[in-house]
Design brief:
With about 230 residues, this protein is of the alpha/beta class. The protein has one domain: Rossmann fold, CATH 3.40.50. It contains 6 helices and 7 strands, in the order E-H-E-H-E-H-E-H-E-H-E-H-E. Strands 3-2-1-4-5-6-7 form a 7-stranded parallel β-sheet, with helices on both faces. Helix 4 runs parallel beside helix 5. The longest helix has 29 residues. The structure holds NADP nicotinamide-adenine-dinucleotide phosphate (NAP). NADP nicotinamide-adenine-dinucleotide phosphate binds next to helix 1 and helix 4.
């Protein structure tokens, strides 16, 4: 897929993987529309990339619809929509998880991705073209001790993504799932992993996502693990 001139919406773009994706898409000549809750971080990325930015909480359906409407108002179409916004909670056995935080995590990770996908598809089905990219995790591939709730939120998105892929095939819409391993981002501010220095830079993951999109036939599912 040629990325120059494509209209790309990215959620959770104020830092981490979303910020790196924004920078790389900008280099490719894409027109960016980005959203996240923190306006100051978002503004910095918008200034660096020429993106149009809107304060967006993906858990809020109206916010997400407004992000999609902004893209269409500004640029006429939505070519690529990346559901990247995500949160985690500290690693604990399930009985020790704060269930109100688990619910909030599901609001962002699961319902936020559903809100984004529904909004993207509303525009893409009319256009009969587009690509939706859902950022999952290797935690969506295998359950791991102390990660039950986060893992469940990402496993839920595997079924969601695969189902949407079947629904959208007749509309020439590509649906891609990305399964990254540990990335060195602010995701872990609350609890730094012991081997954090071995985690991948998010720019590496952003590059692989772009590489895949540029293929004549992008892969439906890509796993990006750290090498050490
Ligand atoms: N880091 C890892 O090891 C890792 C591994 C696999 C998968 N992932 C996934 O990769 C994605 C990006 O993570 P990251 O490592 O880049 O984390 P990060 O540095 O913490 O960035 C997360 C981004 O999501 C935004 N966000 C969080 N909740 C939001 C909400 N309700 N509405 C809108 N934006 C929201 C944050 O901005 P605001 O706070 O300004 O809203 C921020 O821009 C997530 O889906 C995560 O689950 C991460």
């Amino acid at each position: 897929m040629e990325l120059n001139g494509k209209v790309v919406v990215i959620t959770g773009a104020s830092k981490g993987l979303g910020a790196e994706l924004s920078k790389l898409f900008a280099k490719e000549g894409a027109k960016l529309v980005i959203g996240s809750r923190n306006e100051s971080g978002l503004k910095q990325i918008a200034e660096a990339t020429g993106a149009v930015a809107l304060k967006t909480n993906v858990a809020n359906k109206k916010d997400v619809e407004a992000l999609g409407d902004l893209a269409v108002k500004k640029f006429g179409v939505v070519d690529i929509w990346i559901n990247n916004a995500g949160v985690r909670i500290p690693h604990r056995v399930i009985e020790e998880n704060d269930m109100s935080r688990v619910r909030d995590m599901f609001e962002t990770n699961v319902f936020g991705t559903m809100n984004g996908t529904r909004t993207a598809l509303k525009h893409m089905k009319k256009q009969k073209s587009g690509a939706v990219i859902n950022i999952l995790s290797t935690a969506a591939l295998t359950g791991r001790a102390n990660l039950a709730a986060y893992s469940a939120s990402k496993f839920a998105l595997v079924g969601f993504t695969q189902s949407i892929r079947q629904e959208t095939a007749p509309f020439n819409i590509k649906v891609i799932a990305v399964f990254p391993g540990g990335m060195h981002t602010n995701f872990f501010d609350e609890e730094i992993p012991t081997d954090f220095d071995k985690y991948m830079q998010p720019s590496i993951v952003a590059e692989k996502i772009i590489e895949n999109l540029k293929l004549e036939t992008p892969q439906d599912e890509i796993t990006i693990k750290r090498t050490s």
